[in-house]
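Problem: given the chain below (415 residues), write out its structure.
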Amino acid sequence: MSIVKPFKGLRPRKDIAAALSCLPYDVMNTQEAAVMADGNPQSFLHITRAEIDLPAGTDPHSKQVYDQSLANFNKFKQQGWLVSDDQPKLYIYAQTMDGRTQYGIAGAAFCEDYKNGIIKKHELTRPDKEDDRMVHVNTLNANAEPVFLSYRAVPEIDAIVSQITSSQKPEYDFTSADGFGHKFWVIDDAETNARIEKLFAEKVPALYVADGHHRTAAAARVGIERKAKNPAHKGDEDYNYFLAVIFPDDQLKIMDYNRVIKDLNGLTDKEFMGKLAQSFTIKDCGTETYKPRQLHQMSLYIDHHWYCLDAKPGTYDDSDPIGALDVTILTKQVLEPLLGITDLRTSKRIDFVGGIRGLDELKRRVDDGEMKCAFAMYPVSMSQLLTIADTGNIMPPKTTWFEPKLRSGLVVHTL
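Solution.
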């Protein structure tokens, strides 16, 4: 069963929480981070993307950047911008997007649970990205940013969250620049914290990494390595845990993750469409944007036209968690055999566009001549994600896109 514990959160003052919080480090590049933090010395980006405070061209993975991150972290504490709670607590973090609100428990997840498979993943991680986040955690001696976990909803936990959020005023309540709402409650009552911890231990057999696989893997590795290096290890040290916000699965919605292609591998438009017709029933939708409406349906934009593509029987296997995915259909029926794109992680002929950007972004990149065509995908469901993780399978790259992203800086877990 799952271990989720209260911890002494390091948090911003109430009056600066909105200004201090920021998007996660990995959804932007250095230049974008610099623009976001411009004129705001309290932006948490000075901690998560500290290269913005160093000369242009500084390697983001250099020791100089990690040291700058630590210096900025210490400054935030010295200035009183980040202050530690005096007792271990759990927190509730609510996000609102398009009128839909999801409520997560912010707590300390157990590093060993990742190692023993109680915290389940659905994506592969890259060692270099893990190493980067490990250095960041070890340098700060803290998990600066939370990972995004999910679990199969438990009515008793839902009831506690509902009671607190409906009866207590949130500690933080603001709308970020992207228009998403953020509310944050501190659970001060020790009995309530203990009750939630007990419910996770008794009612939640597994946690699932929704977003932040590299942060999860890195945080778990830090804890396990520190355990191995500490001859006086007792098991209750803070390094045994890492920062997570954990949402019930029935409140989450996965967005589409779409593909844009640079060329047709030597095929003409007519030849390409003819080969597609072997695997898909094709409907010309004209110039009006077409968004896929059901599983095993995708849309294609090419030569200023949108097409609806329905996968023909035999191109997918609904009894296989991976074979049932629409991204698998696209890969096996189109990308590999027709376009010669065999490695989605390394090919320069394909790019990926998160659903938050909308289908107009696909159209723009094709119309601008940067790309030859685009495929819009039907979103993966949470049920599919959990099944894939439960069966020990790994999703193809760039399959799920979660919004809103967790704001960094609302709470930090020190080790």
